Amino acid sequence: MPDSGAPSGPGDAVDPEELRLLRARVSALETDLDTVRAALPAAAPAPAQGPAPHRARSLLAVVLVVLGCLLAPLSVVAAWSAELVGDTGRYVDTVRPLASDPDVQNAVADAVSDAVVSRLDLPVLLQSAAPDRRPLLEQALGALGEPLQDAVRSFVHDKARAVVASAAFERIWADANRRVHDTLDKALTGSGDGAVKLEKDSVTLDLAPVVEDVKERLADDGLTVARRIPTLHTDFTLVRSDDIGRIRTYVRLLKLAGLWLPVVAVLLVAAGVLLAGRRRRALIVSALAFAVTTLLLGVALSVFRVVYLDALPAGVSQPAAGAVYDTLTRFLRTSVRVVVALGVTVAVAAWLTGPGRAAGLVRHLWHSGIAAVRAAAGHAGLRTGPVGPFVRRFRPWITWTLVGATVLTYLLWPYPTGWVVIGLALTLLFALSVTDFLAADDTVTGGPPGHASTKETPV
């Protein structure tokens, strides 16, 4: 008798009644499953309310990023204003090139010669000159065939032009600006006296030392009466604007905010990125937006330059005013380029380390190239010895240490430029490529390096 509990073999007959019962049970189970599926949406309406907190969080993230990006150009201006007023060396470095600018030299020579000639009484000049000095004086004036007044003015202007073109003027210019820097804060806030003064619609610089040097040169060349001219406090206009009162208020506020406003802008953007649901994408967009808003500041500086020069009075030298404007804003333009370069660098780095298809292809090409170089070095007999296993073991720590060192170098750099940012980024890229090279497995020399050399760099 065969055992009834034994399983049926492939050749055993199947009981039709059992088959029918099994089919009925399967049909009943499918019906119950459909019923449960149909009842799930009605029984669990809670998920429909789930996206509300997520939408609120995303909205807050967008608001924070927008605020931070809007504060970006303002923070750049604030930091520039604080440095210009608070750092004497920075201020002197800013205005030093003006001493060798031809347009500024011409404007200074005109102002000094006008001041000196206005104090020279020609009849008294000729009568007071010693008899033995008169031939020298007449020869120096070169008054043959032209009015004496024009000859004197031309003579004085030549001496003034010689003074402002000499190294002595550069020294006078730098020393004067260094001495008066302590009063710059008062000048920008509209109070106090000093060589830098803010009066009505102008910021002026006293040229009394230049006038004294011109008087000495005139006396040495025979115009001894020039020594009788009293001390002249001639003002040279650095900045002129009808809105100087408002600008003064803005500069004062920006000076107060110069230290913490950039920090607030960065923290707002960072908080927005952390609150975002897709942080990597938020970081890329925020970095680019930060760079674009700061770039708009650079465009605004160029536009304002045209408006500023067009609004100058007819008697003001536009070339000299343009040179002063360009010189005073050159470090501000440098800061704009730094922020733009930094924003683009962060955005590119975030994109390259992301899961995107294009970014993955770029990383694959990068690691494949290093793997090919490492394989060729292995065929040539190059071995890393104990360095290779050490780098493979601590590769994440080494990578983040290099990134941290790069960031710290940028933060400690006294006055970084756009090229400094690009140089640091390229240096970091080279260091990471060396790490990738050393992390390859020495045992693989006939083909691409092993897994350690081809996996994604955890940046």
Which structural class should the secondary elements be placed in? mainly alpha
Mean pLDDT: 74
Instruction: Give Rg in angstroms.
Output: 39 Å
Number of strands: 3
Per DSSP, the total helix count is: 20
Instruction: Give the N-terminus to C-terminus distance in angstroms.
Output: 74 Å
Provide the β-strand percentage band.
under 5%
**What gross morphology would you assign?**
elongated
Describe the model.
Helices cover 70% and strands 3% of the residues. With 459 residues, the chain is mainly alpha-helical. It has a three-stranded antiparallel β-sheet. Strand 1 and strand 2 form a beta hairpin. The longest helix is centred in the first third of the chain and has 36 residues, at 51-86. The relative contact order is 0.09.
Summarize the structure.
With 459 residues, this protein is mainly alpha-helical.
